[in-house]
Amino acid sequence: MTEPAVDQYRRARLVRGIIANAGFVLVVSILAAGMILIGLEYWRRGLAVFGVGTGVAAVLRACLPERRLGLLRVRSRWFDASALAIAAAAILIVTWGISPLGTK
Fold first, then answer.
1. Which long-range contacts (CB under 8 A, 24 or more apart) does 33-37 make?
2. In this structure, how many other beta carbons lie within 10 angstroms of the beta carbon of residue 58?
3. What is the pLDDT of residue 65?
4. What is the model's pLDDT at position 54?
5. Helix (H), strand (E) at residue 73
């Protein structure tokens, strides 16, 4: 291959990798925002954001085609989506079910 063709191949490979992991980056960003809120002692809001991020991961895992899942693909689609949805529901139920007791 010529030098421009190699550069074009590398660029296309990089773009494919970024697109394939865009959903994963979105989910990790939401979870990181939740963890920052928890660290700043806004634990109820942080847990709510964390639960929403887990729900987003479940929806992305259920809806995106296999080639776009990237690091969200671990096991079968059914198992991953179900486990993430149950975890999201549990996090949100615990978040809303616990009395704030004067916390933020």
1. none
2. 22
3. 84
4. 96
5. none
What whole-number distance in Å separates Cα of residue 88 and Cα of residue 55? Answer: 5
**DSSP letter (8 states) at residue 104:** -
> Would you call 79 exposed, middle or buried from its count of C-beta atoms within 10 A (0-12, 13-18, 19+)?
exposed
Q: Which residues of the chain have pLDDT under 50?
A: none
Return all residues near 58 (Cβ < 8 A) that are at least 6 apart: 80, 81, 84, 85, 88
Task: Say what the pLDDT of residue 101 is.
Answer: 66
Compute the distance between CA of residue 89 and CA of residue 96 in angstroms, rounded to an integer. Answer: 11
Residue 57 has a CB neighbour count (10 Å cut-off) of: 25
Instruction: Kindly tell me the sign of the dihedral angle through the C-alpha atoms of 17, 20, 84, 42.
Output: positive
pTM recorded for the entire structure: 0.80
